[in-house]
Amino acid sequence: MSTRRKHVLKEVVETPAKQDDTVLSKVDGIWLRTFLLVTCVKMLLIPTYHSTDFEVHRNWLAITHSLPVKEWYVNTHSPWTLDYPPLFAWFEYCLSQIAVFLDPEMVKVENLNYASPNTVYFQRGTVILADMIFAYGVREAGRTFCQSVNSSVVFVLLSLCNIGLLIVDHIHFQYNGFLLGILLISMSNVSMVGEQTSVLQGAAWFAVLLNLKHLYVYVAPAYIVWLLKSYCLNGGKFFKRIFTLGLIVLAVLVVSFGPFRTQLPQVLSRLFPFKRGLVHSYWAANGWALYIGVEKVLSVIWKRLGWLGDAKTAVMTGGLVQEQAFLILPTPTPIVTFLLTFLATLPALWYLFHKKHYMNWKYFVRCIVLCALGSFMFGWHVHEKAILTAIVPLCVLAATDEEDARTFIILSSTGHTALFPLLYPDNLSPLKIILSLTYALMSIVTLTSHHGKSLLRLHEWLYVIPLPLVTIYETMLHKLLFGDRLPFLPLAFTSIYCAIGVTYCWILYYCIYLRNNVRTDDKTAAGKSRRQRLKDK
C-alpha cells in the first residue's frame, strides 16, 4: 500500500509528514524483528494448557469438513455449535482441507474432545500463521498514523507484544489477532479520506470483519458516522458515494450469507443467543460486574435483616451469576442492555458527526475506542476478551498523544489482569505474574520516556500498582487464607476490582474526547476570526 497518507476533510486538509525511505526501512526492521521474536515466544507456548475453545474450533473444523453446508448451522452433535458468521465458517472450512492430511481423525464430527499431538500443533500453528495479518495491520496502521520513528516504534512494541492477545490466542486459544489486524487495516484505509480507493478498500475490509465476527458490529456506528461525515458529505457526490459504500457492504453480505439464505433465522439465532444470560460464570470486568457486586452485598444485608428466605439467598450466594434472576435489584433484559449500550456510545457518535471545523483521524479512532468500551461496559453476555477491541486501537493513540497514553496504561493493565483467570491451572500462576509485570513495566517505561513526563496521577498509581497483587490473591493467597471456602470470591474480587478500573477509563476517556473536541473547535474558530480581522484591515 502507498506510504503517502492524506487526511482530507471538508474544511481542513491535514497531510501528515511523509516519511522517507530510510525512516520506513528502519521502522520496518524493528517491526520485523519484534514480530519474529514474539512468534518464537508463541511457539514455546504450543504445549501449554488450552481451554475448551480449542475443542470448539476443532469441532468447527469437523463440521465444515464432514457435513454439507446446509447442516453447518443446524448440527448439534457437540455442545460447541457453530456460532460465528459464515465467513469465519468458510475460514474453518479452508483450514479443514489442510487438517485432514495431518490427522483425518481431527475432522470427524463424532470425535469429541479430540486433541492428538498433530491436532494441537496444527491448530496452534494456524493461530500463529494467522497473526501475520495482525502484524501487517500493525505495519499499515503505523505507517498511516505515526509520523515519527519514535511513535512508530512505540506503537509496534505496544501492539505486537500485547500480552492480552498472547493469553487469549496462544494459551487459552482463539483467533482474535488476525481479526484485530483486519480492524487496523480497515481503520488505516478509511482514515485516508483524500484517497477514494483506500476508503472503499477500508469499507470492504470492515464488511469482511463483520462477517468474520459479528461482535464488531458495536464499533460499526463509528465507521458509519466517520464515512458519512468525511467521505459521503465531502465533495458533492453524496448519492454516488453512499451507493458505492452500500454496494460494497451488500456484496460482502451476499458472498457470506448467500449459501445460507434459506436458513437465515437459524443462523441469526446462533449468532445472537440471548438465552445464555447476562454474564458468564466468570464476570467480565464491566458495569454488570459492579451491578452484580452491589446485588451480592445487598443480598447479604437483606439476609441479616431477615428480609430474604434461605432458599432465595442460596441462589445468589452459592456461586457466580449466570442466568439467575436478581433478588434485590431489577433484572436486566437484552433490550435494557441494548439501550444502555446505545446511550453509552451516542455522545461520542454525536460529537464526531457534529464536529464543525478541524477533525482528523484521532477523533475517529477515539470514537472506535469509546464504542468498544461502551459495548463492553453494558452489552449482553459480554466476553472478558472483548476488552481487546478497545485496547488494541488505543495502542495507536497512546503512541501519539500523552492523554491517550495515560488511559492506555490504566486500561491495558486492568484489562489484562481481568484476563488472567482464563488461565486457571495452578502451574500457570508464575507465568501470569511474569507476563503482567513485564508488559505493564514495558508500557509505563516506554510511554513515559516517549512523552517525556509521568503520565498517571497519584490516585491512578494507587490503583494500578496493586493489580499484580490481585492476580497473586486469585492464584495463591485465597487458598492459603480460606482453603476451599468461598470458591467464587477470587474471581468475583478480580472482576469487581478490574471493573472499577475499566469504568474509570471509560469515564476518563470520554472527558478527554469531549474536552479535545471543544479545544480544537475553539482554536479553529479563533484562528478564523483572526484571519478575518487581518483581511478586513
UniProtKB/TrEMBL annotation:
Which GO cellular component terms are attached?
endoplasmic reticulum membrane
Bilayer-crossing residues are: 149-167, 173-192, 204-226, 238-260, 281-302, 335-352, 364-383, 431-449, 461-482, 488-513
Q: Name one Pfam family in it.
A: Alg6_Alg8
- Superkingdom in the source lineage: Eukaryota
An example Gene Ontology biological process: protein N-linked glycosylation
Tell me the pathway.
Protein modification; protein glycosylation
Molecular functions (GO terms)? dolichyl pyrophosphate Glc1Man9GlcNAc2 alpha-1,3-glucosyltransferase activity
- Reported EC number(s) for this entry are 2.4.1.-
Identify its protein family: Belongs to the ALG6/ALG8 glucosyltransferase family.
Record's protein name: Alpha-1,3-glucosyltransferase
